Prior knowledge:
alpha+beta
Amino acid sequence: MSKKNKNIQGIVYSTASDFNYQFDQEAETETLPPQQQNLKVMIDRKNRGGKEATLVTGFIGTDADLQTLGKLLKSKCGVGGSAKEGEIIVQGNHADKVLQILLQQGYKAKRAGG
């Protein structure tokens, strides 16, 4: 058995001469077009020491596209924040402005509770 296959889990030995292990590779989620995104904009106060943050959830796509959208929202609002795991956090109460920006960019977005 070749050394390059030593990290394969569960396969010890195969007698097949043409054996080729199929790796379960996680395909990165393809980014949906803005019209198909179903984003929710809300104000979040939990775990933030009493400070408010605008939360955008429901983004489906690559991390790079999420970062790009997060950067756009943060720069238009003139504040900091973060974008990870399908969520964009914008510091402060900017829900109306964020919703307006998302709609201008062609995203399907709505205001959720808060």
